[in-house]
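Hey team,

Filing this mostly as a record. A colleague (T.K.) asked me to run one chain through the structure pipeline before their review meeting, and I want the input and output archived in the tracker in case anyone asks later how it was produced. No errors, nothing strange. Just documentation.

Input sequence:
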Amino acid sequence: MILEERINAFIALGKKLAELPAEQKQAWASQARSGNNWFTEESVEMAIRGIIDYLQEDALRKWLADYSFGDIQKRVGVVMAGNIPAVGFHDFMSVLLSGHILYAKLSSQDEILPKKIAALLLDIEPGFASQLQFMERLNKAQAIIATGSDNSARYFKYYFGKVPNIIRQNRTSCAVLSGEENTQDFVKLGEDIFHYFGLGCRNVSKLYVPQDYDFTPLLDALAPFKNVMNHNKYVNNYDYNKSILLVNQVPHYDNGFLLLTENTSLVSPVSVVYYEYYTNAQDLAFQLELHRSKIQCVVTGNENIPGSIPFGQAQHPQVWDYADGVDTMQFLQSLS
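Output structure:
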C-alpha cells in the first residue's frame, strides 16, 4: 500500500468508530472491563472519542505532512501499556501509517479494545493484514517502542538495547494554580484529575500552589466528580490512603472522595493529589525544570509557563502530542 491508501484507511476508521452503535460500544466496554475493572463504559467511550479526534482528516494530514517514508519495511515491536483503554493506539497507528510491520504485544489489562479496533481497520483495508500481528514474543523485532514503569523500562533496555528503540518510563502531569482561578477552572481541572480515575500519565497528580493557598474553593468545586466513589476499586484506594494519612497523622484535606496532602513527590496514589508551595515565578520555574523528565504535561491558566496547556485539556492531546515528548514518527522515519 502507498501512504495515501494507508491515510485513507485510518480516516475511514475514524468515521467507522464515530458511527459505532451505542450497544456495540457497551458490549466492547463490558468485555474490556472483564479484563480490567477500571475500564468503565465512560472510560471506554472517552478513549474512543480521543481516537476519533486523532483520525480527523485535517489533523491527520497536517501531522503527516512533516514526514516522509521510504519503501524499506522493518519489523517494529510495540509493547503496549494497559493503564487506560486503548492507550497503545497512537503507537499502533504510527507504525502502520509509516509503512512498517507492527508486532504488537498487548497488555493483559487491555487485550480487547486494540483487537476490536484492528478488526475494524482490517475490514476497511485488508492490505494491513500483512503489516499487523499480535504477538507474545518480540525477539524477531528489528526496532522497539515500549511503554511501562521505571522498573519495566530497565528490563526493556536490557533486552532491547541492541536494536533502535523508544523506551518510555513513568510520567505524570501537574497543575500550577495562582489563586485567581474561578469555579469553571476548577471543574476543568477536575477533568484532568479524575478522568480514567487518575491512572494515566496525563492525569494531574500534583498541584503547585502559592504560599497560604486556600484549598476550600477547589475542593468544593470538584463536587461533580464525587461519582468516582461509585467504583469499588476507587473507594478501596480512597479508604486505604485516608487511613494511612490518619494513622501517620499526616496533615491533609479531604472532601469525601479526594485527599490533598503536601508532598514533594510528583506521582500520587489513586484518590490522592499531592501539592507543593512555590514562593515566586523563579522558584516555580526551578521546580518544574527539576522534574521536567517526569512531567508529561502542565495544566494552568498561566500562559507564561512554556509548553503548558489550559485546564481541562490534559486528556485531549492532539495527534502530534507525543508521549514523553519523543517524536515517534521521526523515529519510524529513520528506520526507512
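Quick notes for T.K.: The chain has two domains: 3-170, 172-300. The chain has a mean pLDDT of 96.
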